[in-house]
């Protein structure tokens, strides 16, 4: 099961990228951020698996909220683990230099 993340460039609404990630990749991102000393991270939904549509929809909402909070935080938004997770180094490499 993949979760799709839609990215849009800030100054070019035509430039979009869809990134597909598994839950285990979200888990890896969270672990890496914690290893690097980031604290008070948003809560990642639990690993439990239930193939019902309701469960999948709730998890999608929770993962969306998790990512939005990471992107809105000044300390994590420019972190290398998040940049790599969202593939921003490939989609908009100019952020590496700014």
Break the fold down into its secondary structure elements and pairings.
Blueprint: E1 2-9, E2 12-22, H1 23-35, H2 53-72, H3 74-77, H4 80-85, H5 88-91, H6 94-97
Antiparallel strand pairs: 1-2
| Structure classification | alpha+beta
CATH superfamily: Phox-like domain
Taken in chain order, the helices and strands follow as EEHHHHHH
For the biggest β-sheet, the strand order reads 1-2
Highest CATH level, the class? Alpha Beta
- Radius of gyration, whole Å: 14 Å
CATH topology: PX Domain
Q: What kind of sheet is the major sheet?
A: 2 strands, antiparallel
Query: Could you tell me the mean pLDDT?
Result: 86
Q: Provide a count of the helices.
A: 6
User: What is the strand tally?
Assistant: 2
Question: Spans with pLDDT under 50 lasting ≥5 residues?
Answer: none
Question: Approximately how much helix is present in the residues?
Answer: 40-55%
Q: Per the principal axes of the C-alpha atoms, what is the gross shape? A: globular
For the record, give the distance between the C-alpha atoms at the N and C termini, rounded to a whole number. Answer: 34 Å
Please identify, by name, the CATH architecture: 2-Layer Sandwich
Number of domains: 1
Percent of residues in β-strands: 15-25%
């Amino acid at each position: 099961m993949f979760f799709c993340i839609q990215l849009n460039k800030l100054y070019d609404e035509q430039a979009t990228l869809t990134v597909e990630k598994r839950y285990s990749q979200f888990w890896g991102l969270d672990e890496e951020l914690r290893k690097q000393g980031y604290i008070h991270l948003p809560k990642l939904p639990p690993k439990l698996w239930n193939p019902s549509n309701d469960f999948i929809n709730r998890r999608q909402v929770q993962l969306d909220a998790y990512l939005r909070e990471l992107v809105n935080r000044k300390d994590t938004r420019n972190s290398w683990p998040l940049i790599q997770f969202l593939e921003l180094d490939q989609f908009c490499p100019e952020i590496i230099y700014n």
